[in-house]
Every structure is written in structure tokens, then in C-alpha cells.
Amino acid sequence: MVRLDSFLIDKYLAGMIAREEVVTKAQDPVTIQSKLQELELAQAALFSTRISNLSDAISAEQLAFHRAKRAFDEAEAKLRTLKQWNREFENRVDPLVKQTEKLHTVLANDMIKAIAYLTEAIKTLAAYSEIGPRPASSIAEPRPGQTAAQPAEPGEKKVPA
């Protein structure tokens, strides 16, 4: 896939468009401008060494030019990766945000209600424990022939005293 910035750089290097046009139409003008400056400096050095016919210097300048071009391509690839991460960020984070919001709702609403319910249950149990056991006179007396430890026979109804 050809990116707009690299397409503009290629057209600029081919002499088809002006430098200003590359910068104004680029997606990331600051990076493009700095990389263009590096490329132009390397290209100018390459041309000046070609004119002077210094074969060792030509290869060094060509190497510098290719390094600058490679650095530009790497920066462009990093920018592309960052843009992809930026697109995917919302899709990856939204489900987690929804889960966090549900937890917040539970903690903010349901837990408060649960605490209030448990507080009332504790009060009720405390009040119940203060009542204490019934006095001995209210306990049903055993019938004649039956001891207090013997339970009533099945089918036999308990008669309240």
C-alpha cells in the first residue's frame, strides 16, 4: 500500500512537485519537513561529490543518502503503526470500560443497600438476643404418665397449657 507521504516524497524526488506542496499536503508535516531536509542535505552532498568525481566520497555520500531515506521510511512505518494502535484502542478499551462501570454501579448502589440490610439484620438479632428465654411457667407441663424428657407420640397433638 502506498502512503500519501511516501507518494509525495517520491514525486518530489522525481521533480514532479515542489517541496512546499509536499509539506502542505502531507499527513504529518513536521516529520516530513525534517526528513525532507535530511534528504535534501544528503542529496546535495551526493551531487557535489559526483561533480568532483571523488569515487570514495561518492559512495560515502550515497550511503548517507540511503541512510536518510531508510530513516524516513522507518519513521513513516512507526507513524503507520501508531495510527493503527490509535484505531484499535477504542475497540480494545470499550469492553473494559463497560465492565468497570458495572462494577462501579454495584459498589455505589447495591453494596450500600446490602450494608443497610445487614445492619438491620444485626439490630434485629441483637434485639432478639436481649429478649432471652421464656420463663419456666410458660413451658407446657407434661401430661400424666409422660415425663418431661419424653416427646409426645406421633399423631398425638400437643395441648397448650
Which short descriptors sum up this protein?
161 residues; mainly alpha; 73% helix; rod-shaped
Describe this structure in words.
α1 packs antiparallel against α2 (19-25). It is rod-shaped and about 135 Å long. It has a domain at 4-94. The protein has 161 residues and is mostly helical. The protein contains four helices and no strands. The protein has helices at 4-13, 19-25, 29-52, 55-131. The model has no long low-confidence stretch (mean pLDDT 80). 73% of the residues lie in helices and 0% in strands.
What's the overall average pLDDT, rounded?
Answer: 80
Structural class category: mainly alpha
Report the major sheet. none
Low-pLDDT segments, ≥5 res: none
How do the helices and strands follow one another from N- to C-terminus?
HHHH
Spatial gap, N to C terminus: 97 Å
Measured by DSSP, the beta-strand proportion falls in under 5%
DSSP strand tally? 0
Radius of gyration: 44 Å
What overall form do the CA principal axes indicate? rod-shaped
What level of helicity do the residues show? over 70%
List the SSEs and their pairings:
Layout (H helix, E strand, L loop, with lengths): L3 H10 L5 H7 L3 H24 L2 H77 L30
What's this entry about, in short?
73% of the residues lie in helices and 0% in strands.
